[in-house]
Specification:
Shape: globular
Radius of gyration: 18 Å
Oligomer: single chain
Structural class: mainly alpha
Strand content: under 5%
Order of helices and strands: HHHHHHH
């Protein structure tokens, strides 16, 4: 199992290098251009960004899952994965009605904004639930930054 976890972490590191801050730059440039020119090519760009967001959430789940020792922790990790997918899909869906119906764009934009405003609260509550069952669970960033020292986590 250590080999599989090592491959997952290596793949996650490679994905972070490829799809890190570049996504934010692509998103901001696309949004500014879209607002100025009504360019329809923004929809496929946002599809790529949404797929990247969903894949990053999946990689976070795959990296942290082997360290979860309690079934409730696994369930919370699955909820976080579903929330990430919902955020990615809602971001993509937000840009489609902009060309079809502006009223729908305002409605979906309000829903996406509400999801964005409550994200930190949801994350805080999920962290509380994780720490209630397994307080020493390493974070995604800690696992990616460690150089193999984290793999003896279960031997403590």
């Amino acid at each position: 199992m250590n080999r599989q976890v090592e491959l997952t972490v290596a793949h996650a590191k490679q994905f972070e290098r490829f799809f890190g801050w570049q996504v934010l730059v692509i998103f901001l440039i696309s949004f500014i251009v879209m607002l100025r020119t009504q360019a329809t090519w923004v929809v496929p760009v946002m599809l790529v960004v949404s797929i990247g967001m969903a894949y990053k959430g999946y990689m976070q789940y795959r990296v942290i899952r082997p360290f979860a020792e309690h079934q409730n922790v696994v369930r919370v990790l699955q909820y976080r994965l579903v929330d990430c997918w919902i955020s990615a899909v809602s971001l993509f869906v937000l840009f489609i009605p902009m060309y079809v119906n502006e009223d729908a764009f305002i409605l979906i934009g309000g829903i996406v904004a509400l999801l964005g405003l409550t994200k930190s609260y949801r994350e805080k509550k999920w962290e509380e639930r994780i720490h209630a069952h397994q307080s020493g669970l390493p974070t995604y960033e800690a696992i990616l930054e460690s150089e193999g020292a984290i793999w003896n986590y279960h031997q403590k």
